[in-house]
Amino acid sequence: MKLAVFGASGRTGRPFVRQALGAGHEATAFVRDAEKLDGDVRDHDRVTVVEGDVCDAEAVAEAIEGADAVVSVLGHAEGSPDDVLTLAADHVLRGMERAGVSRLLWLSGAGVRTGKDPERTLGGRLMTGALKLVGGDLLADSKRAVERIVDSDTEWTVVRAPRLTDGERRGEYRTGYLQLGPRDSLSRADAADFLLRCAVEGEWTNEAPMASY
Predict the structure, then answer these.
(1) For the chain, what is the mean pLDDT?
(2) Which residues of 88-97 are buried (b: 16+ CB within 10 A; e: fewer)?
(3) Is 32 helix (H, G, I), strand (E, B) or coil?
(4) How far apart are CA 169 and CA 119, in angstroms?
(5) In what residue span(s) does the NAD(P)-binding domain sit (predicted)?
(6) From CA 47, how far away is CA 4, in angstroms rounded?
(7) Of 204, 211, 206, 205, which Cα lies nearest the Cα of 189?
(8) How does strand 185-187 pair with strand 103-109?
(9) Rounded (10°) angle between helices 13-22 and 188-201
(10) 3-state helix, strand, coil in the chain (%, to 5)
(11) How far is 28 from 47, CA to CA, in rounded Å?
């Protein structure tokens, strides 16, 4: 399977690409700076590195050509516009349509809610309130990006994770429309594990599950 990975050099992108390679897949790693990729990954014979900006629609579209699925592990980086995820979603969706690619995996935060989520606990409401207070514009951008994806004609899966850590890959975690609190977390390696599982096995198509320990 060939995966176009946006945000491949980030803290979740790096374990995702490694896991994909370990499972025998190919990856097109879309990054702003190729030097941020580990050398062995950058030079791997099943990795194609594309340097570009997700705000550049043509660069995004070219990276998607020939892919079987698109994976976004993008976040808000220093210096990026506040609406970078909305722009990225728009450009990815257009690129997928042009390339005839239907499968999309998108990593988002648990602060993005859906109508299928259970009623929030007091801790969950406090967590959402804190997110809005500290990064209201960024949370709004994440929500808009997910809305674009949900309204698209793609076979999408939005994986929503709580606080991400740099812990090891366990391969065991809860998935579904979960009731999360401020203490819930997931390692980036396991977020990558779940994204890859959904990409390969077609799990949770047109759903937005959470994943958490």
Answers:
(1) 94
(2) bbbbbbbbbe
(3) coil
(4) 29
(5) 7-199
(6) 10
(7) 211
(8) unpaired
(9) 50
(10) 40, 20, 40
(11) 6
Domains in the chain and their CATH numbers?
Answer: 2-212 (3.40.50.720)
List of E strands, 25-89: 26-31, 47-51, 69-72
Q: Which residue blocks in 82-181 are alpha helix, DSSP H? A: 84-99, 122-150
Q: Which two tokens stand for residue 85?
A: 């995820």
Q: What is the pTM of this model?
A: 0.92
Structure tokens at 186: 């997931």
> Hey, what amino acid is at 91?
H
How does DSSP assign 96-116, residue by residue?
Answer: HHHHT--EEEEEEETTS--TT
The 10s digit of each residue's pLDDT in 137-186 is 899 999 999 999 999 999 999 999 999 999 999 999 999 999 998 899 99
